[in-house]
Design brief:
The protein is α/β, with parallel strands linked by helices. It has a single domain, classed as HAD superfamily/HAD-like (Rossmann fold). A six-stranded parallel beta sheet has the order 3-2-1-4-5-6. Strand 4, helix 4 and strand 5 form a beta-alpha-beta unit. The protein binds magnesium ion (MG). Magnesium ion (MG) binds next to loops. The site of magnesium ion has 8 residues, from loops.
């Protein structure tokens, strides 16, 4: 599957919890889905500027037995629906890592390449879309999001967080997703 005419497109790689939605800790029920203020409009604007919208998320709750992959998928469908209803923006793809080395569900309790800061999910996205890496970026609220961006050689923007350690070398710190627009063409 490729975008029409094979032209490269830049991608906005987006962490989910703490970037698109409120980080309530292992959210998987639709009642716990709270899109953060300004997010839907920012995604619409990013789309207008030509960016693919690709969510990259660690969902270790699957490995820990808190919820299933089906729960994750349903939750993501609902997130898509709410964003689209609110601003018309369409998320192009969701990629998530269900693993964790200390998981309690045996089949998911592995060391993997897809858990951020690993880049396997970005590589998976690269197989589905023709991505212009030079213009792409990552927005996350954890240090591991910025490490993932560095590993993929793209810019990493870290949203200020009072619960997570700030990375010492992000491309920039921002207060909310909407602040990223000021850094882009
Ligand atoms: Mg996060």
């Amino acid at each position: 599957m490729h975008t029409e005419n094979n032209r490269l497109r830049p991608a906005a790689f987006l962490d989910r919890d703490g970037v698109l939605i409120k980080d309530t800790g292992y959210a998987f029920q639709v009642d716990d889905l709270h899109v953060l203020p300004g997010v839907a409009d920012t995604l619409k604007e990013l789309q207008k500027r030509g960016f693919l919208l690709i969510v990259i998320s660690n969902q270790a709750g699957v490995a820990r037995g808190y919820f299933s992959e089906d729960d994750v998928k349903i939750f993501h469908q609902e997130l898509s629906k709410q964003i689209e209803a609110s601003s018309g923006a369409k998320i192009d793809a969701f990629y998530y890592c269900p693993h964790h080395p200390q998981g309690t569900v045996k089949s998911y309790a592995i060391e993997c390449d897809c858990r951020k800061p690993g880049t396997a999910l970005l590589k998976e996205a690269a197989r589905a879309f023709h991505i212009d890496w030079e213009k792409s970026f990552f927005v996350g609220d954890r240090s591991s999001d910025i490490e993932c961006a560095i590993n993929a050689r793209i810019r990493g923007f870290q949203i200020f967080s009072d619960q997570y350690v700030m990375h010492e070398n992000p491309h920039a710190n921002i207060k909310a997703l909407s602040d990223v627009l000021a850094y882009l063409p």
